[in-house]
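hey so u asked for the seq, here:
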Amino acid sequence: MARSTSVRGLRGLFGPSHAGHSVVTDHLGVLSLPVGDDGVVIGDDAEGRPQLVGFHRSTPYDVLLIGGLWTAQVLALRAAGTGARVAVETGRPQEWTTLSQSAGAGLECITLHDVGRVPPLGATVGSPVVVVRDCGMRPPRGRVVSSPWQSVLTLLPYLSPVAPRLMRMATLVGVQRVSPQEAQAIGRILGLHRTETEALPTLADGVTLWCAGGERHWVMTTATDAESGLLGVARRID
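ran it, structure tokens below
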């Protein structure tokens, strides 16, 4: 393969020169490079395959979850486990205090903020941020918005008057068990098939229908032993 003569991409100091490394042709078969999806494991699909969401992006990324606090907290904990700083904007800090204190082995990887009081977080490629907005049925518009390396996950316990706008704005929408009336409204907005709409009121705790454009994925989120010890078993109602 020809070597490029362009140096426009180089940054920093040049190190010492080396002759390089070589390997005989017969040994090439033992070399491998694991390649796979990168992101937060949100659960498994019907075939038991792990499903991931890439929260760390160079472009703004908005996620809406119409569901339970338990699932939002599992996602927050797993996002922190990938190295992200998680900022929780909430009107019920008592529901998040144990999680915040227990995560990160003493490090402040999950911080709590009053509604409307999240400071600038300075997200970068080396220090990505996930903002979780747990602000009730009508989360106010504020200065917390998605940006490069700062994703926003908004939790709605149920369908609310602001839900249609948030669903249309979000790149990814998750829907857990809702009433038949809510399911019909959600189905119209997201363009769900009739069978998908009819299934929403029957979902078990921990099951979410994730929608991104025309893609649909049924995902079961199962807690690890550590997550169960901290958050309890999966539940839709808080």
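Residues 1-37 have pLDDT under 50 and may be disordered. Residues 69-81 form the longest helix (13 residues).
lmk if thats what u needed
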